[in-house]
Amino acid sequence: MKIYTHPPRDEWDALLARPLQAESDTIRRRVEEIVERVRTDGDAALRELAERFDGVRLDGLAVTDREFAEAEQAVDEGLKTAVRQAYDNIAAFHRAQRMEPVRVETLPGVVCEQRSVPIGRVGLYVPGGSAPLFSTVLMLAVPARIAGCREVVLCTPPRNDGTVAAEILWTARLCGVERVFKVGGAQAVAALAFGTQSVPRVDKIFGPGNRYVTTAKQLLGLSAVAIDMPAGPSEVMVLADETARAEFVAADLLSQAEHGPDSQAILVTTSAELARAVERAVDEQLRSLSRAEIATRALAESRILVVGSEAEMVEVANRYAAEHLIVETADPERLVEGVEQAGSIFLGHFSPESVGDYASGTNHTLPTSGWAAAYSGVNLDAFCKKITLQRLTPEGLHRIASTVLSMARAEGLDAHAQAVERRVRS
After folding, report:
1. Statement: residue 201 has pLDDT above 70
2. Residue 82, CB-side half-sphere exposure with 13 Å CA sphere
3. What angle separates helix 24-41 from helix 211-221, to the nearest 10 degrees?
4. In what order do the strands lie in the sheet with 303-306?
5. Are 17 and 302 in contact (CB under 8 A)?
6. Are 169 and 74 in contact (CB under 8 A)?
7. How far is CA 426 from the centre of its chain?
8. Angle, to 10 degrees, between the axis of helix 292-299 and the axis of helix 246-257?
9. What is the DSSP string of 117-134?
């Protein structure tokens, strides 16, 4: 990781740039081809694409009851205990997000209400690939069930033997998900958006993925289906002062770098000494990682910035809008008061991002690539829609009529005015 000491402000944007996506046009064209193939050919396209991209011939796309039963036996009891603990924490935090109905009488006889209604059918995308992310099943399925979604459908890539990781299947059943399909990549997003002979069409798609998945979500989110947010390659920014421990900071940076070669990790610190110590610690810890090659590629697009003050650290953080922001300073609560742009924040020396990824209770499906400036991470609200209601008595209509008539006529919308006028005259 290269260290930049007191870089001038006009260089910040370049230093905070996400990894270049030189292939973005190529990826978009490929995704468009995949989407059209699935839209027109359904299951046949999904089988052909599984053979092309996953190297597997599938007899059926749906996970069978037998496969669920085998997963129950295959998962270690110690892991089951850990996942149940994580489930309880995530459920407790998301249950607390339930909102009471709103009812306001804005004028005598004019009552306005807002109710939260669950989305009917939701599709969850759970990455497989080199690391089957069963934790993502918890992060998506638990709030979907608490929200009351009528049906939850899950897609995840098959392994090269045609199976799905037992941990994913067991966790899905724990969360009450009955329908799991062996479909990955952009083709999974297309299947959920349009529906095929096997995969049902959903109202909204949730979940992180690689650039192909993210591109498919963004394309189809414009025309065919609602999506949670843009959620692409993972990223972390660490804010640290001289009180931080280099080994902790290095571990936090590497925990994101190992996600994938297009992940990014950035340290912003007021201590040049810490910067050098973290650089050494990253090199040392990297050697022991099973995914060292992946992390090394991610670190090529990662960097360390030494700045002059805590105020500059906050300014950099707000400019970057990190998916994960870790604050390892003497007084993190005070520093974070100025942070407005971040997906999820981890305060203090003993709050690693890993706990949010798995079990603290917050959600790990978060906006990336600077989208934290405008999007929230997945929460209970994401699985609901808000419906407003209003009810007027004759007295209420009389009280508000002149206001509506003046505004409707000013906009030249005569029928709007008549809808009120005719009632008032009656």
Report:
1. yes
2. 11
3. 60
4. 2-5, 303-306, 264-269, 235-240, 322-328, 342-347
5. no
6. no
7. 53
8. 100
9. EE-SEEEEE---TTS--H
- Residue 51 structure tokens: 């053979």
Cα 377 from Cα 363, distance rounded (Å): 7
Q: What is the pLDDT of residues 16-62, one digit of tens each?
A: 998 866 568 888 999 999 999 999 999 999 999 999 999 999 999 99
Neighbouring residues of 109: CB distance < 8 A, sequence distance ≥ 6 = 392, 393, 394, 395, 396, 397, 399
Q: Tell me whether residue 324 is one of the annotated catalytic residues.
A: yes
CA 58 to chain centre: 29
Task: Tell me the helix, strand and coil percentages in the chain, rounded to 5.
Answer: 50, 20, 35
Residue 401 is encoded by which pair of tokens? 């009529």
Helix, strand, or coil (residue 164): coil
H or E element at residue 346 = strand 342-347
Cα separation, 215 vs 22, in Å, equals: 14
- How big is the chain, counted in residues? 426
User: Three-state DSSP class for 236?
Assistant: strand
Give the pLDDT confidence of 119-129 residue by residue, as tens digits. 999 999 999 86
Distances in Å between the Cα of 339 and the Cα atoms of 64, 88, 253 are 47, 29, 20
Q: What is the mean pLDDT of residues 341-349?
A: 98
Structure tokens at 19: 């990894």
- Residue 157 in tokens: 């890539």
Phi-psi region of 206 (alpha: psi -120 to 50; beta: other; left: phi over 0): beta
Distance, CA of 121 to CA of 205 (rounded, Å):
9
**Does position 133 have pLDDT exceeding 80, yes or no?**
yes
**Cα 50 to Cα 182: distance, rounded to the nearest angstrom:** 9
Instruction: Tell me the C-alpha distance between 234 and 364, whole Å.
Output: 10
Residues 6 or more apart whose CB falls under 8 angstroms from that of 59 comprise 162
- Identify residue 184 by its one-letter amino acid code: G
Tell me: pLDDT of 190 over 60.
yes
Contact 313, 273 (CB under 8 A): no
Q: Which of 94, 259, 324, 364 is catalytic?
A: 324
The residue annotated as part of the active site, out of 167, 258, 323, 328, is 323
Widest CA span in the chain? 83
Q: Which residues, including other chains, have CB under 8 Å from residue 74's CB and lie 6 or more apart?
A: 166, 170
What is the reported pLDDT for 211? Answer: 87
